[in-house]
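User: Here's a protein and a ligand (S-adenosylmethionine). What would the complex look like?
Assistant: Let me lay out the input and then the predicted complex.
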Amino acid sequence: MVYLRHQISININMSAADVLIKEATALADELSLTLHHSLELKEMSTPYVLNIDHSGVSLCQTAKGAAGPISANFDQGKNRHRRLYGGGNGQLIAKAAGLKKSTTPRVFDATAGLGRDAFVLASLGCEITLMERSPIISFLLADSIRRAQHSEDPALVAIAKRMHLQGGNAIDWMRDAVAPLADVIYLDPMYPAREKNALVKKEMRAFHDLVGENLDDHELLEAALTTAEHRVVVKRPRKGDRINGPLPQLVLSGKSARYDVYTLKAFPK
Ligand SMILES: C[S@@+](CC[C@H](N)C(=O)[O-])C[C@H]1O[C@@H](n2cnc3c(N)ncnc32)[C@H](O)[C@@H]1O
């Protein structure tokens, strides 16, 4: 974690909520990150800054001409559009996780990231535990979930209340868990970034700088296969290599993503 200090610092603006100021100060302390107060981005020496203000937490890049801030705002943009018009259980991720009218599995998302996939599944009714091992990403995500839980939109509040975030390493967590941990375990480990989409590029570049690649994805899969009750679902780029290990029983390919599905036990009818 020592390298993180040179990668990222934290900037607390005066408009930030008290609870965030407290948590951000504790995070800076835990990770030995430099804490700034109300500085301009151009005044920072780290390439990334976790910026805290009245609108919550966002991850910013300080380089001249860098892309805009990254945050997981569940009430806006792609997240909102997909919730309202995404296609319900017809979406590939829902099919991969086995969602049907009669089946709404409990899901453990072992690689939460910014929680977009988890949000889709929670929107479709799943109770979902999200695990994220990067304290920086986890901090961003916790803020997004909290904001959604306090939204004025009751539908969004209900969805966010089905999302339960846990910091830590999911491999250790699954190895120590009493099986079954969940009906479905969902994995979307880091993959070398090759996507063309600008948003993915921006986010993925930041993720690769801050959390690195998943060289241990086979361990994630191995632990998930012994801990899930019904299915393990692995998200990959459409043409990406599958994770080393057993072959999936089902492969669902979309425009950019592919889901490798390991079926362990049929869902009850
Ligand atoms: C590609 S991102 C996931 C994106 C996510 N599916 C979404 O929709 O936003 C992968 C994330 O998994 C996290 N991760 C990787 N291995 C992990 C592990 N063993 N335990 C917990 N989190 C892990 C990384 O830190 C990274 O934030």
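Summary: The mean pLDDT is 92.
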